[in-house]
């Protein structure tokens, strides 16, 4: 997954490359005294990389190619939940409402603008899915929601990758309480993950989940918690100009995920020691085996 650093190229047939200094010198009289910026394109992501260009005291122009660190070239990793974010999945379709699909006895209501939102995500980020559903059900839902776009996913994780506990959620006494530990991605706990260990970390990874408790084992500033989508909502959050879409457009340009989230809170508040239910969650955390 490491991006290839941009190489050097001839300019107007007048370039001479010094392999040690990686400078390209263009000697040509009559040119302007200075050129401000030379733009190179990373062929893999078509991301523009500005290279400084300097003019000497004569009419000769010296082009210095400044290598951009790989850490600045990579796309951030976006880890998407499914239910509550891309769709509303419920036990049965209510009267006067027709679901978009029925899978494994569940009614699937696809969120408005979901397709366009996914195309946007794949353009601006590296994308993976992480759901607390079992694999068989998850694969069928992802097939329906994403179609051929699922081939672009870096991974599609189900409940087997979640950290389990012996507790049930506060909102549903039958629903197991599980965590999504981003360290499993950062440490490449699954050898099939298509990057080197440490390639992703706190600075370039974002989990999006409508359940704040699922991120309790992660560092602060690595997840946002949009309010859950419900099938009967008039919702445009994923569309152009929508709340979540605009937020991610800004995040894609940010240097550091944690710093951006600190300055730009979004959605539900993260669970912390000051939260009303911290006593319960602290007991859950204490029982987790790392």
From TrEMBL:
GO terms of biological process kind: protein transport
Main localization (coarse): mitochondrion
InterPro entries membership: FCP1_dom, HAD-like_sf, HAD_sf, TIM50
Membrane topology (UniProt): Single-pass membrane protein
Locations listed in the record: Mitochondrion inner membrane
Every FCP1 homology domain range: 71-251
PROSITE patterns, sorted: FCP1
GO cellular component: TIM23 mitochondrial import inner membrane translocase complex
One Pfam family of this chain: NIF
Coiled coil residues, start to end: none
Function: Essential component of the TIM23 complex, a complex that mediates the translocation of transit peptide-containing proteins across the mitochondrial inner membrane.
Subunit structure: Component of the TIM23 complex.
Name assigned to this protein: Mitochondrial import inner membrane translocase subunit TIM50
Organism the protein comes from: Gossypium raimondii (Peruvian cotton)
């Amino acid at each position: 997954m490491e991006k290839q650093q941009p190489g050097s190229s001839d300019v107007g047939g007048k370039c001479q490359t010094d392999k040690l200094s990686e400078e390209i010198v263009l000697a040509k009289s009559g040119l302007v005294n200075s050129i401000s910026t030379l733009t190179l394109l990373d062929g893999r992501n078509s991301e523009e990389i500005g290279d400084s260009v300097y003019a000497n005291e004569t009419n000769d122009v010296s082009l210095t190619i400044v290598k951009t660190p790989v850490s600045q070239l990579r796309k951030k990793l976006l880890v998407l939940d499914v239910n509550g974010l891309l769709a509303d999945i419920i036990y049965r379709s209510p009267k006067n409402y027709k679901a978009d699909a029925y899978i494994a006895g569940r009614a699937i209501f696809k969120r408005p603008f979901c397709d366009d939102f996914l195309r946007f995500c794949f353009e601006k980020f590296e994308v993976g899915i992480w759901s607390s559903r079992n694999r068989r059900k998850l694969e069928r839902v992802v097939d329906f929601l994403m179609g051929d776009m699922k081939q672009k996913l870096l991974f599609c994780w189900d409940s087997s990758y979640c950290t389990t506990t012996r507790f049930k959620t506060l909102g549903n006494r039958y629903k197991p309480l599980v965590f999504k530990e981003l360290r499993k991605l950062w440490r490449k706990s699954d050898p099939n993950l298509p990057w080197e260990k440490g390639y992703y970390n706190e600075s370039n990874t974002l989990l999006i989940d409508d359940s704040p408790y699922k991120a309790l084992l992660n560092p602060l500033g690595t997840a946002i918690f949009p309010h859950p989508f419900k099938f009967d909502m008039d919702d445009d959050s994923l569309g152009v100009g929508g709340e979540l879409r605009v937020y991610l457009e800004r995040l894609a340009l940010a240097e550091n995920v944690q710093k951006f989230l600190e300055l730009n809170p979004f959605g539900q508040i993260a669970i912390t020691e000051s939260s009303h239910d911290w006593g319960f969650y602290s007991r859950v955390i204490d029982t987790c085996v790392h």
